[in-house]
Every structure is written in structure tokens, then in C-alpha cells.
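Q: What would this complex look like in 3D?
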Amino acid sequence: MSRELYKFCLFVQIISAEWGDFLNRQEYIEFAESRAKRTTSLKNCIWAFVVGGFICVIGQLLVYAYMNVVKEEKTAYSLTSVTLVFLSGLLTGIGRFDKLASRAGAGTLVPITGFANAVASPAIEAKSEGYIKGVAAQMFVIAGPVIVYGSASSVIYGIIYYISMKIAGQI
Amino acid sequence: MKNQLLKFNSSYLHQAASVVGSKERQGPLGEKFDSFSEDDRFGQDTWEKAETEMVKRTVEALIQKSEIEWDDIDAFAGGDLLDQCIATSHAMNNNGVPYLGLYGACSTAAEGLIIGSLLAEKGFTVGTVASSHFCSAERQYRFPLEYGSQRTPTAQNTVTGCGSFLLNSKKSDVRVKEAIIGRIQDNGISDANNMGAAMATAAIDTILRYFKKTGRTEKDFDIIATGDLGQEGLELGKEYAKSLGLILGSNYVDCGMLIYDLKTQEVGAGGSGCGCSASVFAAEIYPKIKNGEYKNALLIGTGALLSPKSIIQNKIIPSVAHLVCFERV
Amino acid sequence: MEFDILMLLKAFLVGGALCLIAQILIDKTKLTPAYILVGYVCSGVLLNAVGIYPKLIKWAGAGATVPLTGFGNTLAEGVKEAIKKDGAFGILYGGISATAAGITAAILFGLLWSLLFKSKNK
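A: Here is my prediction, written as C-alpha cells for the whole assembly.
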């Protein structure tokens, strides 16, 4: 059916107030989506790159600082993560994190800061429902999937690794 | 009859009151609202209680402005966006007035006006109320407030605001002339961040049904105001209407775009929520009908009837639009 | 580990690039942040499995460990070590035990913040 004819049918159906399945949904969705302004991508990308990079630089500086205290590199990296979790939780608490994130987007989402915010924000928010059913129960409502699929994929990898090691005769 | 027009003979919109939050106060209509709270918590410890408090203040403002007592009101009808309309139910607690709870999402204000007019026709003195609160809606429908996320430009900002109306059969300046009850439409849009697009077709459908039924055209009205289509929905609606032969001109506005300054206030495509059309109609449009600036006005309350669960299930958004026609007597 | 200004630059570039990829995915596809995060953690595990990620960490330090792919890498690394130590039983505890510090910190601090703060006016 041509577009004009389709529109005419639409019109007739409406003025006659008979309601069939008049609307071509697919066409409407495509129309709505094609005209919907997408986020100004270049600006977002620059923000994400700069903020994300900057957070990692802070991380690296923390690693250097912790290397003075601990011996193992691995421990220094862990402590760095913990510190960043602390800092972004604090920013969340004083109501600053969401303002930064609304500009930085993936720049704050992808580093461990995004994970910390995803844990801290529902925890703070759910205070009104109490500490058991609210804070504790809601804490992983956003960050939960990361833990679930992270550990699940590590188990799958573990199985593959174990079998391949067995075959190679190294265990 | 599928396409029944409701005609009223003796329903009058007697008074309107509105209360808003801080962001709405900073908007272009800021001065016109009856009162506002700098603190969006309205002095309460939870966001839900804040919304209840806002509803209470609005209803009290309405009673004060109308110079009546609680006892003079025969019934109240109202609702909000929260699960089971809990904010309004709490606000109506213990005031002794018979109460009808309404849920029409963002179309609640228009739905209330229709129910109110029907009751006023029977001689009732009826109050209606519709409210929404950004913070309580955000935590119910989207993310915790402190969660860092980016909004797409088509997303709308829930209005922290409440509008309340008093209807009766006593002759006054603003008459409720006609109404059309909307029918549920789904146009395939399931993106909760593009509710304007979901509601646009419902709004146009209702307007066209009304014009068809009454024989009037868009030129017969000084203002045609949709509830909360936002910029995206307004433009989509205009284009959609054009494809159906209806040209909407400069008298066609959207409450969601009036309440904020879209350029400076970072609200995406505009305001949304029950409180949007309710507070804008109470503070901006109703006074202008009353002082004669608008002789004939249409309010089309648009509602995207989604729920937190339906968003997660990625269900198509059913939309509805109720139309109410006002006339300066 | 010696302080190295070049390392900071490398951390900036790698960390920034990982965020940039995610931003492009969010803007250009329908993937929501939740999917991106899950995707990043799983790819971290995968990249460790094929041996790329440890090299990236050596090269860019925190630029590779701070993004969530680093979390996935730690999970995979933990599993490998646990298997070497305890055999098949390590499959179960290796991942989480290696990342336990971060997760526990997030939980503990989450509790702390909920005691100290309220959500603000928006």
C-alpha cells in the first residue's frame, strides 16, 4: 500500500470513528526513533574519555603511594580499588556523584567508581524502608548482575582452565 | 456508542490551587503558583511523605481560596503516580470527606476534572487533586536519586507539583462544557525515555474524535493544551496530526513545555507527571480563562500508563488522553 | 615499582579508551548501562583467558585495573591460582575470593553511607 493511500485510509477510519488496527506501529516506531534526538555523541565521548582517563590516573597515583607501604603489586592494586570505592561512595553520599556522572557518562560508569555508586546510591535511598528490608535488601539491586555474571563467568573459565590443565598434565 | 461526548449543563470550575517544588518555582511560571517549597522534602523525612505533604498543602490552599470549609465538600477525587496512589490516600486520611482514588498516570488531572464535572452535575461540590513528585517517582520508576546516569534528550523530567480544583453546580466564571474520555492506544513505543512519542497519538486521536463529534475546529479555541507530551511528543503529535489532515497552530501548547525553561533547566524534553498538567492548568491556564483572556480552552490530559514492572519487561506503553473543554461564561 | 610519568599517561589513555568504547556503545546502540557493566566484567574474564589482559595491566597499570574489565581479570586470575593450589575445588572459590576486598569494601561502605547520608534535593 502506498504511503498516501495508507494515510487516506487512516483518515477515513478516524473520521468515521471506526477503530480498526489502524496505526502502522512499525512505521510509527521507525518515524519516532528516526526523529528522536540522540545524545550529542562527540561531547559525551570527550567527557567519557577525559573523566575515565583521569580516574585511572588517580588510580595509578594511588598505586604508587601504596607501593611505599606494601610489598606486593597485587595488594597495591586492591587497595587502590578499595580507596576509589570509598571516594566515589563519599561523593555519592554528599550528592555530587550523579552530577558528575550526568556529564561524564561511561567515564564514571566503567571504572570501579560506577560499581561503588551503584551500591551506595540504592543503600542511601532505601534508608526510608529501614536497614533490613531497605538498605541491605536493596543494596545490590543495580550492581548485583555484575557480581552474578562475573562470578558465573569465572566459574565457567575455571572449568575450562581445569580441564585444559588436566589434559596438559600440569595438575 | 463508542464515541460518546459528555455534555455538561451546570458544571463550573470554581477554584484552583497549586503547590510546586523548587525547580518548578525557578521555571517561567514560578511566580504564578500559590506556594512552593524550597526544600523538595517539604519538611518530611521520606520522599513519599513529602508528596503527601504537598498534596495536603494544595488541598488546604484550595479550601482557603474558595472560602469554604471541609464540611462543604461532598466528595474528593484524586491520584498520583505512586504505587496504589498512596500519596493522595495518605493526604486524604481523616478529613472526613468521601474519596475516590484515581489512576490515569499523567492524565489524572483531566480524569479528575471529568469525574468532578459529572458529580457537580448532580449537585455535588467536588474537589479533585493530582500530584507528582520528582524524587518519589524517580525512585519508583527509574533509579535511586544519587545513582549516576545520563538521560537521553527525549526523556522527561517528572514535575514536583500538585494541582487541585473545586467544581460545583453554582454558576461562576468558568464552565466545564464538554469532555471526551480517551481510549487506550498503543502505538508500539516501549521506550520509557520517550513517553512523549508514546502519548502523542493518543492525544491526537482524542482531539480528532472531539472535533468530529462537535464539528468544531482548532480555530474555535484560544488554547489547546496537552498535558505532558514534552517537546518530542508535541512535535511528533503535530506531524502525526498533519498527516491526518489536522493542522495545529500556535494556539496548541503543551503544559510540560510551559512549566520549565527547556534551554536552561536541564529537563530533557520537558515536564511530565500528574502534577505537570494539574499545576500548569491551575496556575496558568485557569486564571486566564477566568479573566477572559481565553474564551474557549481545551485541556487534553495525556497519560502513559506504564508501571515499573512493565518498563523492565519492555512492554509497549499503553497511552490515554482525556479531553475537557472549558468555556468562559 | 618506580614512579613513572609515562605510566600515568598510559593509564590515562587506556582507561579513557575503555570508557570511550562504553560511551559509544551506550549512545549508538540500545544497550543500557547495566548491560555494558555485565559485558565489561565478562570480557575481562575472557581477555584474561586469552592472555591479553595481564599484558595490558603490565603496560598501563591502573588504566587497566580500575575499569570493570580489571574486575573480570581479577576474577579469572583468582580462579587460575586457586585451581593451581586446590585443584577442582578452586573453581568455586577462586574468583570471588580474589575480588573479596573490593566487594566487601563496597558493602561495608554502602552501609556506612546509608547511616551517614540522605538522598538530596534534585
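A: To summarize the key features: Residues 42-139 of chain A form one domain. The interface with chain B takes residues 7, 10-11, 14-15, 17, 19, 23, 25-26, 28-29, 31-32, 35-39, 44, 92-93, 95, 97-98, 100-102, 104-105, 108-109, 114, 117-118, 120-122, 124-126, 128, 142 of chain A (CB under 8 Å).
Q: Very helpful, thank you.
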